[in-house]
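INTERNAL AUDIT FORM
Audit reference: QA-55
Scope: verify that the stored structure record matches its stored sequence.
Auditor: D.O.
Record contents follow.
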Amino acid sequence: MAESLSLQREGGIAAFAGVLLLLANPIVAAEPPPTLLTQDMFNRYRGERTCEAGPGYGQIRASLRAEAAAARSARYLQHDDAPEQERRIAADYDRVAQAAAARGCPDVARTFWGYILEDYAGPEHEAIRRRAETALGDLNTTPTRQPQ
């Protein structure tokens, strides 16, 4: 019996210590992680010989897939940070599309701006949708050139 009380006391102390640790280091669930895209990825992509076959482009695509999956999951699970994650991935699609357009890769740019128009509707995405539509219109009237 005394052994049972000792174990209960130790278990209670351990649980209390765990609660204290959580209070001392609060986890901020509402704060979404920062973008996975880095300037180094963009620099690498800008220096590649092709629009879609280089390691920089592959790294960008992998990062975007991870961010998009996190945003879809947050929306499905109704997390508080879902709208922020959706804004971040839409902004990252826009950044990649702009980089692709600037280096003469209109098909890549169209793809990413198309993702914005297909996947992000509603008033909260109106500004980025308008930017994507404008950019696509400009892209369609600009003569294409080979990547540098």
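Auditor finding: record pair retrieved intact. The CA atoms of residues 8 and 41 lie 53 Å apart.
Action required: none
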